[in-house]
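I'm stuck. Protein, please.
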Amino acid sequence: MHPSTITSIFLLLLLASAPFLSSAFSDLFESWCRQHSKEYASEAEKLTRFRIFEDNLAFVQSHNTAANSTYTLSLNAFADLTLQEFRDARLGLGRGLGSSDSAGTGSGRTPFRLYSATVPTSIDWRKKGAVTQIKDQGSCGACWAFSTTGAVEGINKIVTGSLMSLSEQELVDCDRTYNTGCSGGLMDYAYDWIVQNHGIDTENDYPYRTGEGTCHKNKLDHRAVTIDGYTDVPSKNEQLLLQAVASQPVSAGICGSERSFQLYSNGIFTGPCSTSLDHAVLIVGYGSENGVDYWIIKNSWGTKWGMNGYMHMLRNSGNSNGVCGINMLASYPIKTSPNPPSPTPAPTRCNLLTYCPAGNTCCCTRRFFGLCFSWSCCELESAVCCKDHRYCCPYDYPICDSRTNRCFKGGKNSTGVAVAERKNPFVKLGSWNPLLDQWVL
């Protein structure tokens, strides 16, 4: 029996025992909080979240007990958010840009190439090894970047045989001509940026931080994967979109701002939803179930949403826009050229005569009148050098705590609670080498 069915039965039992309704809902909420590691700033905030949870619970129960629905909802990780809060945190397809005519005017755009009209009855690019793991954009409207990297990862695997997870953060930080980081963007602009930069870095080298940062310009030449251009699928033409998906994973804009989309659990999603495009996803295949056709959608909201991060969305709906507008704004990258060879990492320069190994951070260990006379090397890139001159911390955990010898991450969690998340113990700096030993002759 599917977990969503069990949830529906449990809800019906709760409704049948009105005298205990409040306490039963409270117990369910406490269990949900433990499951999703939810913590709140105050009892008042917790009560507010509980009321929202109750409202979403009633919505889930009403949908799941209705007749003839092809999909179910659940109390997923977003069940304590109002729809507006959810929209503000998770959507981000090019603000104010809602058609393929709005983008794709850059040098990398090429005309749509007609594929063979004969396509397989089903295809799943996950089974062909062309899809990376489910990622989580967090409370940053960078869905456009995840859709872009997913499509480039797919075509790179198809052309080169190598599946590499690529850097959304590089797009968020550095692709700023038209796209606006966590405030939204479009895939075509991101493809253009990759073409003009002659490639994109890997996720491992330029990891995601769930927020905007300063562009690491020293990484712009870390071009792990290149593309030669990109193509827009003609809008509102589902047959051409099918041909494209039969050839590779395809980026698509959709409407992701409906409550049923927020709480989707499994099955073939049929809406209702508008065609006001505000979210970006990746189409990684298509198929049929009991005579009902569907697209396979890869989302960027983590594995606790949908079917471990995926959705089946109705295909052949009879509407040229497609369910949630999925036929309206689709595009994909083109790749025919091989990737460039991996560059030899250059050493990190501390000053004119002092260097650390590639990927290290220079930390000053002896300073006199504002000038550094002795350097040590931190094995972490873009690290923070601690004031004790003995240790360093990762750039995303920049607070050095000499009392506990640990690195912390300051800021607030999703509910506004101040946190100081603990990282690993300090990383010890390399041995203090005499300046003369590090001269480059």
